[in-house]
Write a structure and sequence with these properties.
The protein has a two-stranded antiparallel sheet. It is elongated. Helix 1 runs antiparallel to helix 3 and helix 1 runs antiparallel to helix 4. Strand 1 and strand 2 form a beta hairpin. Helices cover 45% and strands 12% of the residues. By secondary structure, the protein is of the alpha+beta class.
């Protein structure tokens, strides 16, 4: 089974981190670097704009991507898609348990 159907091979989402603290740390670094890049521009000049790409890498592309990853991380384990005999349904999963 592939990760799309919630089977044993299901991996984590490309936007979400493995844990909530790690995801929040990525957000703090990302948003902090982007804010510093633009906020400190009048003080330090254009060289500080080098912090913006670092922030975007930490956010994995954009602030919306980070937010989608956060929502995915918070909802992980609440619903599980199960496919049997060519029919797929959504079932409640136990929170914190890996889908499988």
């Amino acid at each position: 089974m592939s990760g799309r159907d919630g089977g044993a091979g299901a991996g984590r989402d490309g936007y979400a981190s493995a844990t909530l603290p790690r995801h929040l740390l990525r957000g703090a670094v990302g948003f902090g670097a982007v804010a510093a890049g633009f906020g400190l521009l009048p003080v330090f000049g254009p060289v500080v704009l080098l912090a913006v790409p670092i922030g975007l890498v930490a956010l994995r592309g954009c602030p919306l991507c980070w937010t989608v990853g956060l929502l995915h991380l918070l909802s992980r384990g609440r619903l599980r898609r199960t496919c049997r005999d060519g029919r797929c349904t959504l079932e409640r999963g136990s929170r914190g348990r890996a889908a499988g």
